[in-house]
Every structure is written in structure tokens, then in C-alpha cells.
Amino acid sequence: MLKRFEQEPADYHGMKYAVGVGNGTDALWLTFLALGIGPGDECLTTTNTFFATAEAIWIANATAVFVDSEERTSCIDPARIEEAITEKTTALVPVHLYGQCADMKPIRKIADKYDLLVIEDNAQAIGAHGDGFPIGELSDAATTSFITQKNPGTCGDGGAVVTNREDVDRAIRRLRNHGSEKRSCHSMGYNSRLDDIHAGVLSAKLKHIDRWNDLRRKWAARYSEGLKEAQHITLPYEKPGYRHVYHLYVIETKRPEQRDVLLDFLNRNGIDAKCHYPIAIHQQAGYPWGKPARIAGPMPNSERNAACDLTSSASARCRMSAFR
Ligand SMILES: *Cc1c(COP(=O)(O)O)cnc(C)c1O
After folding, report:
1. Is residue 285 part of a domain?
2. Separation of 22 CA from ligand 1 center, angstroms?
3. Are 24 and 83 found together in one domain?
4. Does 100 sit in the ligand 1 pocket, CB within 6 Å?
5. Is residue 286 one of the residues assigned to a domain?
6. What stretches in the chain show pLDDT beneath 70?
7. Which of 141, 81, 130, 138 is closest to 101 using CA atoms?
8. Which end of the chain has fewer CB atoms at under 10 Å, N or C?
9. Which of 113, 115, 57 is nearest to 294 (CA)?
10. Quick one: 314 and 223 in the same domain?
11. pLDDT tens-place string over residues 152-168
12. Given the CA of residue 158, which atom of ligand 1 is nearest to it?
């Protein structure tokens, strides 16, 4: 089942290879290992993301370097990347946050100029695309998570890596299966398989992903229409030519001191809202726990996201009830 399933995300992304792994975090760090990223290598990413993006860099024993995000999309700001590059920089790790692609074209240009690897953290945006670029095409590999709450999620944990690089696919296949390419022959590896049960669930669900994403987009448009007169919040920004798949519908309050009041109001009125990433990674207590890390410069956008964002990953029922 797994083998059959792996062809499906590969075809869906228009990529040569897809390899299933245990979860989205493993997908990232196994990719780093497969690409030879390790101690001393700097990986540039964002601090307004799920913790696992940075954690995977640290699991690979590499250095996490945090670059501020764009003001309107909350994805890594390409204009801040070059100044963060040093001779130790090896890779760029953009995150397609909340369901919208990071600005991959300038990221690819910078990677070419400085000879850097690019790994897309696509745990939140399967089915999204940028202005003239699909996910996976402008990078060495794109990783994803299939945990239940992602779109599409399985009934537990799962993850995958899609790539056009045969060497990356092969290395991850070996690493995920105890370093084995041939029965009973091993080199050092790990256990991070996507099992057949989840492959079966995902195979059934992946067929519907475009339709489900269309529904998310419809609900998001309905939210934005209903909220367009609201004075004290900023609505999600969809870049022209991009397909945002709204893994999360994120509003930003202009009054951070009242965010909790607003959150409570939404929840009391049947809207399943939360704060995703209220503490940016570089603001976590004890950061960076003895791990190699660097903050590339001021982080005004990331810190504003942490202080002001409110997210809804609402189910269809909750979303619709908001404007009935
Ligand atoms: C969910 C997520 C991950 C990690 O996925 P797991 O399957 O939970 O390990 C990594 N990066 C981002 C941006 C995520 O949203």
C-alpha cells in the first residue's frame, strides 16, 4: 500500500519522487541529513512557524538562523535573507505558512547566487501554488506533515518528502528504514516509516484535496467578506496569482492588549479560534536551550504576529455558522 500510495503525492506535486515517513518533523530532518546538512551548517528560516521547523534543524545538529517574516503574508521575507547569509550558510528553509506559499522566486535566485540548498516546509499548504511556481519545483525537496489536523491529515501521524532528486529520495528511503536498502544489510539509520494503514487513509483523502481546498477558499472568502468592515483587525492577504489554501484563516488584531477578549468572544460565539504561535521560537523560555542559533536582525513582523494573530482552523460547521 505504501509503495502504491507514494506515487500519488509524487504525481500530485508533479515531482519524480515521494517518500513517506513517520511525521512532518522527521520529513524535515531526514531531508537535512539526506542533503548532508549537519554541524556548523546554518539553515535560514523563520521564527513565526510551528516549533518543529527549527527543532528539525537542531535535530540535524545544524544552526538555526532566524530571519524576519514579510509584513503581510507572515512567510520568510526574501528581502531580509541576503543580509543574514554568512560563509556557513548552507540552506534556506522557507515555510508555506497558514496555507500560502512563501515567495519562492527570489528565494531561488538567492540560493543560486550563494549556492545554497532549499528545503520547503510544506506542512500547511498542500495544493497551494505561487505566482507561476508549484511547490517543490524551485527547491531540492519539499516536506509535509499528515498529522490529523493538517490538510490532508491521516488518523494519526504521517509525513512525506517530495523531490526531483534521486539521491535525496534514495537516502531518505535508507534512513527511514534502519539504514537498509537490502534485506539484512544495514548502515546507521532510524525508524521513521509511514505505515500502510495511514498510506491507505491518505490515498483515499488525497483524491479530494483540491475540492476540499476549494471549499476552504470559499469559506475564507466568506469570512473576509463578512469582516471587511471590521475596524480593528487586519484580514489575511492573498498575494496576486497565488493560491492560498487556508490551512488557517488568520486575522491580526491592531490592539494586542485586547486579543484575549476577542478570542474569548469568538469562542463563545461558536468560532473555533486559537492563537497559533503566540510565542515566536526566539521568544520561548530558555531559548535556545544550548542549541546553535542566531537571530539575523530585528524581528518586528514575527513579533507582531506572535502578539496579534488569531487563527481559525474551524471546521465547516463552525465556519458556516459564523455568517448564517
Ligand atoms: C505540523 C508542522 C510540522 C511538523 O509536523 P509533525 O507531523 O507534527 O511532525 C512542521 N512544520 C510545520 C510548519 C508544521 O505546521
Report:
1. no
2. 11
3. yes
4. no
5. no
6. 314-324
7. 130
8. C
9. 57
10. yes
11. 999 999 999 999 999 99
12. 7
